[in-house]
């Protein structure tokens, strides 16, 4: 910038000169790709005919930075993963920023750097965007909204409504890492050095699973955690899901933090994990390709779908059964 | 809802039970379409091969409701218009809501009703969405972000970088209506009963213009107004644009309000107007089809592109010339 500006001002959202400088010097330079550089209000893409997935999410996480990620990484991974969970190869994202006046410019730059890195990891381009600035009293820092489109390859049909009795439930790794890492970043509970969010783009894990055949449903257990996601699947497909508690992988620091805070890891958010519901006879092959990827190394079968009243039943390590309900209320606001 | 809730709470953004109720009862019921009802985290669409436009904008306007529109209508029209300005028929939108805790439920319902109506007017479907709730201190009500995709018909290439010397500049109607209507809604300046935002979807105005041929560039002059948009076109295409001040249509109440507030209508935001740059020999035909549509009834030629130093020159009614610069600073925060 002509004179280096250290903070975002309302002028950066005006549509005028300051906004054009911000776009050129903070966004376009970091996210650079030929489509973004077209410079019109909408990006032009060329696509083959076929089935597309289209999705959006807003990200309001606090703090903006935490071990293992930040709001920018979440904003890319979360939307990429929503596409992947529909069996779609993520292709293009757009990103919209609502910034509280006074945000330090280098914080915004770090967020955009992180988005650029996550987009490269995920193999997507960020092709268009928008910036609004509001008074500090109206936004305590930064909200990021992304939308994405992806291509669903011929023959793949993955939906939360496809689960059938007899199907096997797989989780791709430990649950609760993201939720507990963000909680710890808010008020250090001393959970140790390995503590980090799992935020990661998952298409490279999903594609070989789909190639195995037999994948009925995929869902990333973000807000509300594994328990809520399983309830969504049970309701959408009208099945009962039985989960073996001791089969659900949970890291020691997540378990310790959850006990300290009176939380259940099964309700903690994940940002780099998936739940897959697969045909029983394909489960072994699918587990094998999952475990060949670092992101699925700890993949585990955690339960089965059954005919019966829609809902989720948890079988505990001592053999008792209890209903595992969808999250009620809100215990961890602004976790993503 | 089981017990009717009058206000949004953090639980409505939890991912859990309350959020599922909100989605079903406020969003899905109002925006209903077969794709939205798929119920997965991403919507599945089927598209023909070809060129697509993809765009996003966040909307942070205050107040949420104003004569002629509201944040929901803007969130649909603004994104639809960004697609139309790329020569793309708007097809599908996704919408993401960041809600301040405590927002009255019926305000949210009115906004979603308005989005449904605007989407119907524009011929688009809202196919997926997201809801986040933050503490009231972090968002003073409601922010809406939409993203949209549209199809660019074969043969149409419209870009802000296509303007050439000799081209004619057309504006589709009066400028400043939206900016002044929102300003008046903030602090009633007594501008009279006809005062209203122009917020409207513009594809039905654009399609016949494109069918005429000779449309080089389209842009909707939102934040920063006509003056800023013309500067963008001049910079992107490296041309000089000369505007005849007295040819720019401005309503009396906009002129009166702008004088009272010390503002220039050429910098006031518009949400239902477009600037078209067209080949000189096609200008008459294009004006004719524009005027046949209510949204273009007052369309006027306001200037020309010339070779020369990139920039915009205003020729005033007394024949003097002055540079018309891009907006500097910010005089109307949160106008859209």
What does this entry look like structurally?
Two copies of one chain form a homodimer. Chain A folds into two domains: 10-152, PurM-like, N-terminal domain (60s Ribosomal Protein L30, Chain: A, 2-Layer Sandwich); 160-323, PurM-like C-terminal domain (Phosphoribosyl-aminoimidazole Synthetase, Chain A, domain 2), CATH 3.90.650. Chain A has eight helices and 14 strands. Chain A has helices at 17-31, 71-84, 105-122, 177-186, 203-212, 225-237, 252-261, 283-291; strands spanning 43-47, 50-59, 65-66, 69-70, 88-100, 125-134, 142-152, 168-171, 215-219, 240-244, 275-278, 300-306, 311-315, 321-323. In chain A, the strands form three sheets. In chain A, strands 9-11-8-12-10-13-14 form a seven-stranded mixed beta sheet. The interface between A and B is large, with 86 and 86 residues.
Secondary structure topology:
The structure is a homodimer of 336-residue chains.
Chain A: H1 17-31, E1 43-47, E2 50-59, E3 65-66, E4 69-70, H2 71-84, E5 88-100, H3 105-122, E6 125-134, E7 142-152, E8 168-171, H4 177-186, H5 203-212, E9 215-219, H6 225-237, E10 240-244, H7 252-261, E11 275-278, H8 283-291, E12 300-306, E13 311-315, E14 321-323
Parallel strand pairs in A: 5-6, 10-13
Antiparallel strand pairs in A: 2-7, 3-4, 5-7, 8-11, 8-12, 9-11, 10-12, 13-14
State the main characteristics.
homodimer; 336 residues; alpha+beta; 60s Ribosomal Protein L30, Chain: A; Phosphoribosyl-aminoimidazole Synthetase, Chain A, domain 2; 2 domains; 7-stranded mixed β-sheet; 4-stranded mixed β-sheet; 26% strand; globular
